[in-house]
Amino acid sequence: MPPRQLALAILLACACLAQAPDPGVEVAVAPVYPELAVTGRISGSVIVDIHVTEQGAVESTAAPEGDALLRQAATDAARQWRFQARSARRDLKLIFSFRLMPKGTPEAQLGAVFRPPFTVEVRRASPGPVSHYARAEPPESGKRPD
Length: 146
Prior knowledge:
alpha+beta, TolA/TonB C-terminal domain, two-stranded antiparallel ribbon, five-stranded mixed β-sheet, 146 residues, 3 helices
């Protein structure tokens, strides 16, 4: 391709990218990693389908797959997202990734990481080792087991 045509092609590509629709996220909320999920060592991703009104509010959410605890946390967060007003309603997908990090991971590597436009990774430190031995309760003094 001659240099002049190449320059024109690059300018055209840049113009197309500049006109690409902005997702218009005004408020993005990260879910809270449920304590029961941390204790149970549950991790994974949840895709939340949302319906956004013309005013930019999330009208409805649906997360048909994933662990129930993670789905609930993801849909609770998704309902709080806000978008720029548009002339039409629209359907979007938000991705919430729940990730357990190794015990001892520095605090700076934990928390929420937003990956525009529609992905949030929530990181928590893994709980300590699980004891497989149940503590036996001592018998009450003076009583013999039946």
